[in-house]
Amino acid sequence: MDGLALTRGGRPVLHDIHWHVRPGERWLVIGASGAGKTQLLKAVAGDVWPDAALTATRRYLLDGQWHEQPVDVRDEIAWLGPERQDRYERYGWNHSALAVVGTGLHRTDIPLDTLSSAERGHCLSLLRLTGSARLARRQFLTLSYGERRLVLLARALAWRASVLLLDEVATGLDAVNRQRLYRVLESRRFKGSTWICSAHRDEDVPPGADHLLWLDAGRVRHAGKLTARRLKQALAASREKPAPPRTPVRRKKATTARAVFTLHDADVWIDEKRVLAGLNLTIRRGECWVIHGGNGAGKSTLLRTLYGDHAVASGGSILRAGVVIGVPLDDFRARTGLIAPHLQTDYPRYHTVQDTVVSGLHASLGLNFRATAAECRKALAALKSVGMEEFADRTLAEMSYGQVRRILFARAIVTRPRVLLLDEPFTGLSPGLRAQLLAWVEERIVAGVTVVMATHYRGEWPRHASHELVLRRGRILHEGTIRR
Is residue 479 packed enough to be buried (19+ CB in 10 Å), middle (13-18) or exposed (0-12)? Predict the structure, then answer.
């Protein structure tokens, strides 16, 4: 790339990009949320077209010949990351995990032909390599967020591409599977291959990276050899504004121990598979529960069950405070803030940022009516609290993955929630933004809001977390009070 620029929705995203990637190099792309990392990878893949300019070039070398059209080399580029993963949910591509891996062999989005016996054996060996062979017969959309990532890693292996694009690839993976991912990237299957990986967290930086591209507001700050000093500078700069000081605060004591959620012998089935089994759990007003466990443990399913997206099977029950016969579930949802990967996936991309936030007041996905002036004022105030008010008139399609996550925080904030259900809420956010939004969550806990949060990272636990719940394969492995 030489002199490449990119505009999305009338807004400049990338400016004068000069970047040369040579065979066998392994690039780490660092930058704050909205710096242009994902859009740059899309430009590499040919998913977006750069601005027309006489002096700008984007060229690919394949088999000794230069190509200026990405379509000529698309089969040699494989993509793995949250945004590509979301397409399966958005388009309802619900094939078996084995069939999804098979699409990598044929370099297609969906299965177009039945796999031969040899192909099935090869795909199964790739699933085994990524630690997900047990998922082979499962339907893709019944898998957890992290399990889907492992299946798509096997698909990328099957693709045998010359270049692998890894966009925030470690997000959604537990510690065990992150290490498995890194071992695969360092294995002989990728020996001599080229990959480009974007990341925010220190722990999400894959070993083996030898070059660094540092983006700052769509411009290249550094493109060259990776050194520990330069990486430290880039990660520090991605923190944006300094995090607010986490001074000791006194938590407001709950005035009542009234239960907000009560589950009794709760089983939850999804596509004929029992995902949660025999859960007995009471969450009381003002408590903060942290849910953790490996990929596929049932964390997201539990949160969606609390919200009302999944029903409890006959023989069990779930009770929600204030929800009785004759009271619509939407009344509960209107006072509940929800942040979850599936919400980010399902949201219509053509909606404006402001309407997305307003929809939180109605517990809906988008709006089919014009927001009132009062609702718009509330939405702008919520956007201002996460530093996104300047994007109010933009569409979600113009936003980066991390920016959409901040917008979902504003959508939760606008409801002035009494309950917060947070499923990996800080995914795609740079360190500074994570710290700021974690501080906001802590303030809500101090104010007496009930919080239930799932996370793989110990550093994301709120200071005032009162209880923890450990799930394993849909069952409660441990629950109890967090001791200080």
Answer: middle
Residue 484 to residue 478: CA distance in whole angstroms: 17
Same fold: 4-237 with 259-481: yes
Domain ranges of the chain: 4-237, 259-481
pLDDT at 247: 47
Q: pLDDT tens, 159-171?
A: 988 899 998 888 8
pLDDT in tens, 174-206: 888 888 888 888 887 777 789 999 987 777 888
- Identify the pLDDT of residue 399: 84
**Residue 430 in contact with residue 33, Cβ under 8 Å?**
yes
Q: Count other Cβ atoms within 10 Å, centred on residue 414.
A: 23
Query: Candidates 3.50.30.30, 3.30.930.10, 3.40.50.300, 3.30.420.270; correct CATH number of 259-481?
Result: 3.40.50.300
Residue 239 confidence class, pLDDT cut points 50, 70, 90? low
* Cα 149 from Cα 180, distance rounded (Å): 12
Q: Evaluate whether 220 touches 19 at the Cβ level (below 8 Å).
A: yes
Longest dimension (CA), the chain: 73
Sheet containing strand 163-167, strands side by side: 77-80, 163-167, 194-199, 26-30, 211-216, 219-225
Dihedral sign (CA 360, 362, 363, 366): negative
Residue 251 — pLDDT band, cuts 50, 70, 90? low
From the candidate CATH numbers 3.40.50.300, 3.10.290.10, 3.40.430.10, 1.10.760.10, the one assigned to the domain spanning 4-237: 3.40.50.300
DSSP 302-359: HHHHHHTSSPPPTT-EEEETT--TTS-HHHHHHTEEEE-HHHHHHS-TTSBHHHHHHH
**AA identity, residue 83:** E
CA separation for the pair 96, 98 (Å, rounded): 5
- Relative to beta strand 65-67, strand 60-62 is antiparallel
Quick count: other Cβ atoms within 10 Å of Cβ 324? 8
Does residue 55 carry a pLDDT above 70?
Answer: yes
pTM of the model: 0.73
The reported pLDDT for the residue numbered 313 is 94
**Hey, which bits of 210-252 come out as E strands?**
211-216, 219-225
Residue 221 — very low, low, confident or very high, per pLDDT cuts 50/70/90? very high
| C-alpha–C-alpha distance, residues 305 and 319, integer Å | 11
* Residue 375, both tokens: 């609702």
Classify the phi-psi angles of 325: left when phi > 0, otherwise alpha if psi is within -120 to 50, otherwise beta.
Answer: beta
Asked if residues 405 and 344 have their Cβ atoms less than 8 Å apart, the reply is yes
